[in-house]
């Protein structure tokens, strides 16, 4: 991976299990690794610059060097809830890889893009930028850090 490479395409969904099944049956995608992202496992979680204790479920799988992610909001308010309210299910963000997220963030914020959600999970750190008005979707910056084994897989 090189800095700025697209490493993930993510969709927000209302029902994670139905979405995994649809992607698996329609496109042959999987197996999906399923995680729950919530405190205290998610550290330094913020939404719109304020500490947040929101929780969400996500599933990931790889295809042709790109990670596909499905996200289902859980408790608390997040940018995923806002997206569902405004657009319904669909493409939410592309994740760009950076070895030095702080340096990349400084560059993006200098260009006027603010962080709308962020956090850390194991060795992974992630920062969502307010790029929807400019690009039509959100950009996530992250380091693709190592994370724990999933809670479950689909199909099992």
Q: Percent of residues in helical segments?
A: 10-25%
Beta-strand content? 35-45%
Instruction: Average the pLDDT over all residues and give the rounded result.
Output: 97
Order of helices and strands: EHEEEEEHEHEEHEE
Number of domains: 1
CATH superfamily, called what?
Answer: 2,3-Dihydroxybiphenyl 1,2-Dioxygenase, domain 1
Judging by the overall fold, what is the CATH architecture? Roll
The residue ranges in which pLDDT falls below 50 over 5 or more consecutive positions are none
Q: Report the CATH C-level class.
A: Alpha Beta
CATH fold description: 2,3-Dihydroxybiphenyl 1,2-Dioxygenase, domain 1
Outline, from the CA principal axes?
Answer: globular
Q: Largest beta sheet, briefly? A: 11 strands, mixed
Strand order of the largest sheet: 4-3-8-9-10-7-1-6-5-2-11
Structural class: alpha+beta
Number of discrete helical segments: 4
The number of strands is: 11
Report the span from N to C terminus: 30 Å
- Radius of gyration computed on alpha carbons: 15 Å
């Amino acid at each position: 991976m090189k800095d700025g490479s697209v490493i993930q395409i993510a969709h927000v969904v209302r029902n994670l299990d139905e979405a995994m099944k649809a992607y698996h049956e329609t496109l042959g995608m999987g197996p999906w690794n399923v995680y729950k992202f919530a405190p205290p496992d998610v550290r330094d979680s913020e939404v719109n610059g304020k500490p947040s204790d929101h929780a969400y479920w996500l599933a990931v799988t790889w295809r042709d060097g790109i990670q596909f992610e499905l996200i289902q909001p859980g408790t608390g308010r997040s940018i995923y809830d806002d997206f569902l309210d405004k657009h319904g299910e669909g493409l939410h963000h592309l994740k760009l890889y950076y070895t030095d997220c702080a340096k990349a963030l400084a560059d993006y914020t200098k260009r006027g893009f603010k962080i709308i959600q962020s956090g850390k999970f194991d060795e992974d750190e992630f920062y969502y930028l307010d790029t929807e008005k400019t690009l039509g979707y959100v950009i996530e910056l992250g380091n693709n850090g190592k994370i724990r084994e999933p809670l479950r897989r689909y199909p099992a």
